[in-house]
Amino acid sequence: MNLLERVSADAVTHVLHGMIEERVEWRCRGEYERSFLGDFQEWIEKVIGWLSRVFLQESAGALPGPAASSTLKRWRCHVQMFFYRLYASMRIEELFSIIRDFPESKPAVEDLKYCLERTNQRQQLLTSLKSALELRLLHPGVNTSDIITLYISAIKALRELDSSMVILEVACEPIRKYLREIRNVELLKLRFGEAQMHYCEVMLKDMADSRRINANIRDEEQKLPEQERPPFSLVAIILSSEFWPPLKEEKLELPGQIKEAMEAYAKKYEKLKAMRTLNWKHHLGLVNLEVELADRTVSLSVSPVHAAVILHFQGKSTWTLEELSEALKVPAASLRRKMTLWLQQGVLQEEPPGTFTVIEEELKDQAEKVVLIDSDEEGDSAMASQADQKEEELQLFWTYIQAMLTNLESLSLERIHSMLKIFVM
């Protein structure tokens, strides 16, 4: 009746799986220079023999009947498939190291090939290997010679693993792409010079580091209680100032809640990067806003100045141009140009001139507006233009000349010229 099997099959299966996992981990992990399939096949047969005596109550040496043979076949198939999947998964995790040690690791490759022929784990292998190559090999800390050496080993190992070359073609595409990029970079260095390309490398590293730092800070915020999390998501691009072109300098006083969020972000950054801090450029960046009004919601991506303007209307529905200019520390002429966006989006209206009010309910009788971009805003760049840089230098010279004339009673033109030459040098 096989009553014992029916009652205890789940418990026995659980115990068997645990024993196989423990044995595979203990005997096989990190060992690539010998095959383990034969040893495990013998061990599995011993386990099946024990199961036959337990479940079928057979004495040693007795021949099993047809029903018993079917039961043993089912258990043998189950245990073998579990072992193949488990062993293949472990070798897939270690495939980067196996490729690195090839041909000494050839027995491990042959074992993996045998298991893959009996399990459906090729996609798992491709995903895992591509990820391992990108994380452990394809980054600036690895020498090009080491990348090429491992690529050659990968070709040999994956040919042994898959004679159709499909795995090799798909899994090694990131390496081929990376090597092409290295060649392009070397050509650019020959064309523009090593020093200029070093600046570009630092810029790219800054962008990658910024993504990593933002992810770390976001993970830390997710661990906080709901009431302690920041009211909005803040993502920073952290630049190495010495390697980037000069950035525009404009005054902007942000609302208190924005400044608090920036200060909290800076403290988290200082924990990650000891002895470093952030110098925020308040006027640069992009803000994704949803402006909720009485009868509609306006979604826009705007500059920090535009966002700061509309945030002031959150607590007070009417502002004069002079009041906003004083609150934001932005010149009135420049601020009026910034207000154009909100006027043309139908969020604000100017009435009387110089006074701006929120339009909570859309004016139905108002003709459809076309959004016009001010010429100063169109194609606006965060980088300081050459004219801006020259103007800043001239302002510095003029300040130095004023200081000379103020502190010294009289100077000849030749004396002023010689002192300026020393100052410029």
TrEMBL record:
Where in this chain does the record put each Cullin family profile domain?
Answer: 134-343
Q: Which UniProt keywords apply?
A: Cell cycle, Cell division, Mitosis, Ubl conjugation pathway
Q: Which Pfam families match?
A: ANAPC2, Cullin_AB, TPR_ANAPC2
Signal peptide (from-to): none
Q: Name one GO molecular function term.
A: ubiquitin protein ligase binding
Gene Ontology CC, one term:
anaphase-promoting complex
Q: Which InterPro entries match?
A: ANAPC2 (IPR044554), ANAPC2_C (IPR014786), Cullin-like_AB (IPR059120), Cullin_homology (IPR016158), Cullin_homology_sf (IPR036317), TPR_ANAPC2 (IPR057975), WH-like_DNA-bd_sf (IPR036388), WH_DNA-bd_sf (IPR036390)
Q: In which pathway does it act?
A: Protein modification; protein ubiquitination
Which SMART domains does the UniProt entry name for this protein? CULLIN
Q: Which GO terms describe its biological process?
A: cell division; metaphase/anaphase transition of mitotic cell cycle; protein K11-linked ubiquitination; ubiquitin-dependent protein catabolic process
UniProt family annotation: Belongs to the cullin family.
Q: What is this protein called?
A: Anaphase-promoting complex subunit 2
The organism named in the record is Micrurus lemniscatus lemniscatus
Ranked from the top, the taxonomy reads: Eukaryota, Metazoa, Chordata, Craniata, Vertebrata
